[in-house]
Specification:
Blueprint (H helix, E strand, L loop, with lengths): L8 H21 L8 H6 L17 H16 L42 H26 L4 H12 L2 H5 L1 H19 L4 H18 L3 H8 L1 H9 L7 H29 L16 H5 L30 H8 L2 H7 L3
Helix pairs in contact: 1-4, 4-5, 4-7, 7-8, 7-9, 8-11
Length: 337
């Protein structure tokens, strides 16, 4: 009988990663994006406005009303930090980092193609980069945790196509995509200096991709949750703790140097400086971790409560399917019950 645990990693992993890369290249070649910029085109009555597939979503205003216009402004401003095409002369460094020609570009590979290709291709590659980073990152992380290759691939794809990832992709995608690479690097048995340098770059790039502090802190909570049960020995290793600590401090120093003047300017603003999240989710959102389509209409993606993004959860039918198909008699025989 075929067993997925026996699929050779050395054969499956290069194939899977190559497919992910080729999919990203094809996505970019067709100049596709998940953008809802069609909302703006419809508002101004542009001909042929609208996406190739799907429907533009008003709720994704973080993207079509903020991120994409800022990318356009950066391109028209020839990637300079201060927007000379606007009478406000505003600093284009912000939450959604557009492509800028400054030293921070070292940590923003998602923007590199803006300087060598037409903007349409570069903008598509921006999104493809994070998609490939997400799928390949969680795949490699799951492998590192001891999960079989095919299950690791299924898990990474399940996470990518979950409600939370898809509904929030054009806002939180960079944070979700960078997280597995940070955790994977912490878990890997690398030599101290290369590991410290790599982790410093990854942490800096992770924050610069979307410097939303509450979101980053909440997402970073996954790091100890994974490290503690799977690699408790790392917490007993002075060398590993030192490497991680040095990398974190170095990344913090780099980020402070880049954002110091903005931090001073934004600290006392109502939002985001003093923005407070009261948190709290409904019981149905919790339940959607097991029943992922509980809070919205699957055919139209209309939310049954609040907006579609706020009811998104990282949920799949896998746990319910496991409960339904489990042979409980075998569990009794093996002594697990």
């Amino acid at each position: 009988m075929f067993q997925i645990s026996r699929v050779p990693r050395l054969r499956f992993t290069p194939t899977f990663l190559a497919v992910v890369l080729l999919a990203g290249i094809a996505y970019t070649a067709f100049r596709m994006t998940p953008s809802s910029w069609g909302m703006v085109l419809k508002a101004i009555g542009a001909r042929g406005a609208g996406p190739m597939l799907g429907v533009s979503r008003d709720v994704r205003s973080d993207e079509w009303a903020i991120l994409t216009p800022q990318v356009q402004a950066a391109v028209r401003n020839r990637f300079q930090r201060f927007n000379k095409t606007s009478f406000y002369d505003e600093d284009l460094r912000n939450l959604f980092m557009p492509p800028l020609k400054d030293w921070g570009l070292i940590f923003r590979p998602q923007s590199w193609l803006f300087f060598i290709t037409p903007p349409a291709i570069a903008f598509s590659a921006y999104w493809a980069y994070f998609m490939c980073l997400f799928i390949s990152g969680y795949y490699l992380l799951f492998l590192e945790l001891g999960i079989a290759p095919m299950l690791a691939a299924a898990g990474s794809l399940a996470l990518f196509f979950s409600g939370f990832s898809q509904f929030w992709w054009t806002t939180t995608g960079p944070v979700m995509a960078g997280l597995p690479w940070v955790i994977w690097t912490i878990l890997r048995p690398l030599r101290p200096i290369p590991k410290a340098l790599l982790l410093t770059w990854l942490l800096t790039a992770w924050v610069m991709a979307l410097p939303d502090v509450p979101l980053l802190l909440g997402t970073a909570g996954a790091i100890p949750v994974i490290v503690l049960p799977f690699r408790p020995r790392l917490l007993r290793s002075r060398r590993e703790l030192a490497v991680t600590g040095v990398a974190a401090l170095a990344a913090a120093a780099i980020l402070y140097d880049y954002y110091a003047d903005l931090i001073a300017a934004m600290r006392n603003t109502g939002y985001p400086g003093r923005g407070v999240s009261h948190g709290g989710i409904s019981l149905s959102v919790w339940a959607s971790q097991l029943f992922p389509f509980l809070n919205f209409n699957l055919s139209t993606y209309d939310s049954l409560q609040r907006n579609i993004s706020e009811v998104g959860a990282v949920g799949t039918l896998f746990p319910i399917l496991t409960i339904c198909l489990l042979k409980y008699s075998k569990l009794r025989e093996s002594g697990y019950t």
